[in-house]
Amino acid sequence: MFKNLFKTVQDLVGGNDEPKGGYNAEEGVYYAKGSFDDEVEYNNEIICITNGNLDNMDDMNDAMDDKDYARAEKVRLQWKEDIKTYKEQVKKIGAYNGDTMLMNAAFEFLDEYDRLMDNGYKVLIEMRAAGKRGTPEEQAQLKSNNSLIQRFTDKFNEVSDDFLEKHEDD
Predict the structure, then answer these.
(1) Are 60 and 121 in contact (CB under 8 A)?
(2) pTM value?
(3) Nearest 5°: CA angle at 161, between 157 and 162?
(4) Domains: count for the chain
(5) Residue 100 belongs to what domain range?
(6) Would you write out the chain's pLDDT as a tens digit for each of its 170 residues?
(7) Angstrom distance (rounded) from CA 6 to CA 72
(8) Are 167 and 99 in contact (CB under 8 A)?
(9) Is 57 domain-assigned?
(10) Structural domain includes residue 154
(11) Do 156 and 50 meet the contact criterion of CB atoms below 8 Å apart?
């Protein structure tokens, strides 16, 4: 009786299974699974890893919106550490059938974020901590940061598209 009850509860709450990677049709979302079967899954795996920066960006924006610049600095430093982890994850996935095109683009993309942490965000946090929020100087730094992100994201997305096009007939 208890065995059946336990199974029923597990079925209702999903048990203690680890979340499965891959495409979740119910949610319409692809989750990283650490492996790939074709060029589309490879691309998705790399994109999922690099999208970790979006979580970091949310943390940074939350700290900045709260005007908690000490927390923003902690987020910046953690982001730098996370970038190392993202790079290790990309390296672990490796090249796609010997093609390093997308892997190298991911490394370049992550390196750009790392440089932005050392320069753009460090400067922006310092400016805001010094009470310069809203000044022309601070707004110029913010615009520069956003422009850089847009530029290197566009470049990475372009390589991703080129990669998929290159391998679509494999």
Answers:
(1) yes
(2) 0.82
(3) 115
(4) 1
(5) 38-167
(6) 434 434 444 454 444 444 466 667 776 666 666 668 899 999 999 999 999 999 999 999 999 999 999 999 999 999 999 999 999 999 999 999 999 999 999 999 999 999 999 999 999 999 999 999 999 999 999 999 999 999 999 999 999 999 999 999 87
(7) 45
(8) yes
(9) yes
(10) yes
(11) yes
In a domain, 119, yes or no: yes
Q: Mind giving me the DSSP string for the chain?
A: -HHHHHHHHHHHHTTTPPPP-EEETTTTEEE--S--SSHHHHHHHHHHHHTHHHHHHHHHHHHHHTT-HHHHHHHHHHHHHHHHHHHHHHHHH--BTTB-HHHHHHHHHHHHHHHHIIIIIHHHHHHHHTT-TTSHHHHHHHHHHHHHHHHHHHHHHHHHHHHHHHHTT-
User: Which residue type is seen at 118?
Assistant: D
Task: Classify residue 134: in a domain, yes or no.
Answer: yes
What is the distance between the alpha carbons of residues 169 and 39, in angstroms, rounded to a whole number? 10
The pair of structure tokens assigned to 103 is: 């892997």
Tokens of 37: 């079967």
